[in-house]
Amino acid sequence: MKVDHIISNAYVLTMEGNGVGMIENGAVAIKGNLIEAVGQTDEILKDFKAERYIDGKGKAVLPGLIDAHIHTGMAIFRGVAQDMNNWMQKGLWPFMKHLTVEESVKGSMLNIVEGIKAGTTTFGDYDSNMPKIIENYVKIGARARVAELVNEIPDDIGDLPVGELYPFFPEIGERKLKNNLELLDRWHEAENGRITAILGPHGPDMMSLELLNEFKHLAEKYDTKLHMHVAQGDREIDQMVKRYGKRSIAFLDDHGFLNGRLLAVHLTEATDSETRLVASKGSSMIYCAGSIGIIDGLVPPLLTFIESGGQGALGSDQAPGNNCNNMFNEMKFAAILTKVKKSNPTVFPATLALRLATIEAAKVIGLEHQIGSLTKGKKADIIMINLQEANLSPVFSTPIRNIVPNLVYSARGHEVEMSIIDGKIIMEDRILQTVDESQVIREAQQVADAISVRAKDDILSAESDILDMMRNNYL
Amino acid sequence: MKVDHIISNAYVLTMEGNGVGMIENGAVAIKGNLIEAVGQTDEILKDFKAERYIDGKGKAVLPGLIDAHIHTGMAIFRGVAQDMNNWMQKGLWPFMKHLTVEESVKGSMLNIVEGIKAGTTTFGDYDSNMPKIIENYVKIGARARVAELVNEIPDDIGDLPVGELYPFFPEIGERKLKNNLELLDRWHEAENGRITAILGPHGPDMMSLELLNEFKHLAEKYDTKLHMHVAQGDREIDQMVKRYGKRSIAFLDDHGFLNGRLLAVHLTEATDSETRLVASKGSSMIYCAGSIGIIDGLVPPLLTFIESGGQGALGSDQAPGNNCNNMFNEMKFAAILTKVKKSNPTVFPATLALRLATIEAAKVIGLEHQIGSLTKGKKADIIMINLQEANLSPVFSTPIRNIVPNLVYSARGHEVEMSIIDGKIIMEDRILQTVDESQVIREAQQVADAISVRAKDDILSAESDILDMMRNNYL
Question: d(Cα B475, Cα B473) in Å, to the nearest integer?
Fold first, then answer.
């Protein structure tokens, strides 16, 4: 049988089964946008002829990584707010209030490029202005599972004193919900199915119960999922207790939100019993290790969630908090931060981290029938990693293998040589095939230069920890 | 005046003063192996002519990173032991017992290549067979501050049941001490001063008090430092309490080891009061964030040490525990693990991390008069980092700068384009100039293949957690 591509002679990590599904000297045959076969190299080469043969000797071949939670629209503000108190209000907000939609979209493209160059093939993007951001995914050729960030709070909420209850404006919610429905109606299953859309309520504290309930009904109507921040910080819990006299998770339970449709992001402030409750109801959890570590200095309860039978995934969140959007960073931090939380090096093995960025993440976002492992009939979202880099060498294969620990604990992202998404080679020899990377970087720099000027007075009057650092020549 | 190289138009982080000593649009003039001048580009270009001009536009230029504690001789075992109990005895030892000196040296070169490609220019190498390993540094042209790992325990100590007191053999100590003295006598200040040697007692639990006391006298005789593991794990504390009825730090204090000559590595098991005692006596601390996080699931007390007035540095330790030897990894983990330990995002800013890998580390290892910052008269150990990578873009420079946070929280190592050590360009456009990188990797792979065969029976009979993972297709 004739196929388009055969990658052969590789260490193929199929991620099928309970582990990593390793096939040494393995091969993958790709036809159109689908995986036609996965197996031993000699068998695949006997059964198939290809338009193009790709040599995988000395390489690892695995499913493209899934970043289950990312806000690409904030990428332009990488590195402007960390090591500080009041991250959102004093760090980010003086910049954010000056960001136009067009500028956010340019920053988003930078973020998507960064992700692809570090092995991400599917982006769980959750941001404002998604009907515009989505054009980036169309152009670059990445897989996206998008949601509009919907709330009823005004854009200048950052000016509200800390601790005051957010005001809700139904017309804001309507406008943003309209964007979310546009995604579902116009974009869901677009681009050969590469783009899919779900619902994106911003958080239980960010809108009225009426709008939350509307989301619940829409999720049933569209038979889709709700991507939502839950217990993401003490600010949220404080709002919920002040408004409803309940913490977030009890409130969501009361109103019927804890079920298989909910992707609960962060759970930073969830107690152990709240965590177990969310898991027991069949909701999923997305853990953003780097972001929550930097912004809050905390380690959310992913391990408790998984041990309670819950389904977990990893996400890189946003550049101004985490500073990078790289799933190798998230895998390593998820494992080590959890080991440290439990003072036990065995509780979070490398294999679990790799599964949480591939097959388990696919289950969380509801695409496990299409992506997350390498098997006949799934979409051809595949990355090839050069193991012959100094930091991934040498390779031991018998009687034990060291490939998975080295991918999780030593790979940095730049070892990803090739990225295939939906059967198409998007990156080859680390060069993006669909966009001009240097132009993307140049345009992002122009945006940053322009915002620096417009935001100057607000940044200076914020009196943030960052300004102190500048004055002390610490930055 | 004529110089050899001028790097201009860069963001120069001199690391002088209390912060990062940023010079925007800065330049560095290099003559021979020394920095001739650092300043504004226009001034430097007015005052000097160069053999070669290097354009630093869009780049950060900073002192080469210092890895204050690394065992390069173990690099060949990257990734064979993690996520497990009894890391040393069941994970590493079945491999280690089959390692020849020649094989260790080949692995060491792989590790040095990895470090240089991630911006390390000075290696605080602390290992066995250093008189052989040192040839790697001579060849590749890196700066090294070496010490022989000296103990009195037999090579097969890994076969001793956990909890039994180590036997000491004076003839082993004598042989290893001879290696250490060879370093001091033959290699100290060799290669134009690029190689220097200090003393390397393995730990207070690893040799008799007699030999420890000999080290104390040798340190005075040679006017040098002692690079030593201190309170590195419960295994050490257990040995000390069983042998002497004292914990490590009280024992070292009793015998006069807590002073400015001591580089205390790890302090994993040090209590707060022990930590403060070590700091107050003028000893230094080296923190290996990634290694101790993965092997032990613990966060040593670096912050308490620094807040008590102690001098700290970072190290990458060894590849079979940490899996990578990359100071960008260490800076990020040191900052985030400490934030998480204190549940406070402000306690460990990016600037502190960068200082601990440059100027503060230079003070710890006693080379602050030569390296660690960019200023006239210091050695020309300089790295140039491309900020126009997607993950380091965009650059904000006014009214706040985001370069330092992005270097610490987002750089991965591959953004280092050029490395200059002792005035010589060792890496340019990411290509090593002094060794053939692919040959180094190939030779390390041959070593791994050979050891796999020889060590097979020992690995299989170790009944380690890793073997269970192999059987379950987790690796």
Answer: 6
Which of 3.40.50.80, 2.30.40.10, 2.40.170.20, 2.30.110.10 is the CATH number of A2-63+377-432? 2.30.40.10
Tell me whether A364 touches chain B (CB under 8 Å): no
Coil, helix or strand at residue B179: helix
Helix, strand, coil percentages (3-state) for chain B, rounded to 5, are 45, 20, 35
Question: What are the structure tokens assigned to B446, written together?
Answer: 């041959």
User: What does the alpha-carbon distance between residue A342 and residue A301 come to, in Å, rounded to a whole number?
Assistant: 10
Is the distance from CB of A296 to CB of A268 less than 8 angstroms? Answer: yes
CA B371 to CA B63: how far, in whole Å?
Answer: 8
pLDDT at residue B10 tops 90? yes
At A315-327, the pLDDT tens digits run 999 999 999 999 9
What burial class does residue B399 get, using C-beta atoms within 10 Å of its C-beta: 0-12 exposed, 13-18 middle, 19+ buried? Answer: middle
How far is CA A466 from each of CA A159, A288, A298, B182, rounded to the nearest angstrom? 18, 23, 20, 50
Separation CA A237–CA A235 (nearest Å)? 6
What are the structure tokens assigned to A11, written together? Answer: 């260490």
Per-residue pLDDT tens digits for B227-256: 999 999 999 999 999 999 999 999 999 999
Q: What is the mean pLDDT of residues B200-224?
A: 98
Rounded distance, CA A110 to CA A325, Å? 10
Compute the distance between CA of residue A281 and CA of residue A286 in angstroms, rounded to an integer.
15
Task: Mark which residues 144-173 of A lie under 8 Å from B by CB.
Answer: none
Beta carbons of A337 and B337 less than 8 Å apart: yes
pLDDT class of A220 with cuts at 50, 70, 90? very high
Q: What are the residue ranges spanned by the domains of chain A?
A: 2-63+377-432, 65-365
Helix then strand then coil, % of chain A, to nearest 5 = 45, 20, 35
What is the CATH code of the structural domain delimited by A65-365?
Answer: 3.20.20.140
Written as six digits, the tokens of A361 are 């993440």
ipTM above 0.90, yes or no: yes
Contact list in A for residue B460 (CB cut-off 8 A) is 399
What chain B residue is nearest to A443 in terms of C-alpha separation? B394
What pLDDT band is residue B161 in, cutting at 50, 70 and 90? confident
CB within 8 Å: B403 and A83: no
Over the stretch A51-95, which tens digit does the pLDDT of each residue have? 999 999 999 999 999 999 999 999 999 999 999 988 888 899 999
User: Nearest CA to A423 among A363, A365, A358, A378?
Assistant: A378
The residues, ordered by sequence, that sit 6+ positions from B148 with a Cβ below 8 Å of its Cβ are: B127, B128, B130, B131, B176, B177, B179, B180, B183, B200
> How high is the pLDDT of residue A162?
79
Instruction: Please provide the average confidence, as pLDDT, over all residues in chain A.
Output: 97
3-state secondary structure (DSSP) of residue A282: coil
Q: CB within 8 A of A100, min separation 6: which ones?
A: none
Q: Which two tokens stand for residue B81?
A: 């032991």
**pLDDT at residue number B360:** 98
Task: Please give the model's pTM, rounded to 2 decimal places.
Answer: 0.98
Burial class (CB in 10 A: 0-12, 13-18, 19+), B347: middle
Cβ contacts of B469 on chain A, cutoff 8 Å: 19, 349, 351, 400
> What φ, ψ does residue B213 adopt, rounded to 5°?
-65, -35
Quick check: A409 and B339 CB within 8 A?
no
Please state the rounded mean pLDDT for residues A236-240.
96
Tokens linked to A155? 């854009």
Which of 301-320 (A) contact B at CB < 8 A?
Answer: 319
CATH of B2-63+373-432, one of 1.10.260.40, 2.30.40.10, 2.60.120.10, 3.30.460.10: 2.30.40.10
